[in-house]
Amino acid sequence: MSEESIKIVGYNPAWIGIYETERNFLYSLLGDYVQGSIEHVGSTSVVGMVAKPIIDIMVGVKSLNASTGAIELLSNNSYCYYPYKADVMHWFCKPSPEFRTHHLHLVPFNSPLWGEQIAFRELLRSNSDVASDYASLKKCWLTNMKTIEKLIHNKNGHL
């Protein structure tokens, strides 16, 4: 995995449309692999939140084993697979590890990780004080972490 440098930017309303376009593409591509829904998660899904300009998308699947075939399908359609947290998800980036516009997480629908991601997104969307504190924390992390991998590792330890 590449050690891509981190950039955090102000909220961009275009992120919603970018997500919706990709969600439609993923529904048409993944079809029967999708169980539940395809969700926009991460900071770009929270109106007004500063974020890495990378759209995080979580696809509900029946199980990791049942969705293994989606790895090749996605790899043939501009996504790069990486076995990050392979015990709880299939993880991809697009268009390349060196330059990412999308992160894609195939996660068993209603698994603990699914619930955590949705609950955190909804907390940030509904509580402006928590969202403001989280934005401040992200800016502090940016000062100390210089790559996405270091930021993700540090962030996951705090959330």
List keywords for this structure.
159 residues, 5 helices, 5-stranded mixed beta sheet, globular, alpha+beta, single chain, 5 strands
List the helices and strands and how they pair.
Blueprint: H1 14-30, E1 34-41, E2 55-61, H2 69-75, E3 80-82, E4 90-95, E5 100-108, H3 112-126, H4 128-144, H5 148-158
Helix pairs in contact: 3-4
Q: What would your notes on this structure say?
A:
- The protein has 159 residues and is an alpha+beta fold.
- 42% of the residues lie in helices and 21% in strands.
- It has helices at 14-30, 69-75, 112-126, 128-144, 148-158; strands at 34-41, 55-61, 80-82, 90-95, 100-108.
- The two termini are 23 Å apart.
> How far do the termini sit from each other?
23 Å
Structural class: alpha+beta
Beta-strand content bin: 15-25%
**Nearest-angstrom radius of gyration?**
15 Å
Described by the principal axes of the CA atoms, the overall outline is globular
In short:
By secondary structure, this protein is an alpha+beta fold.
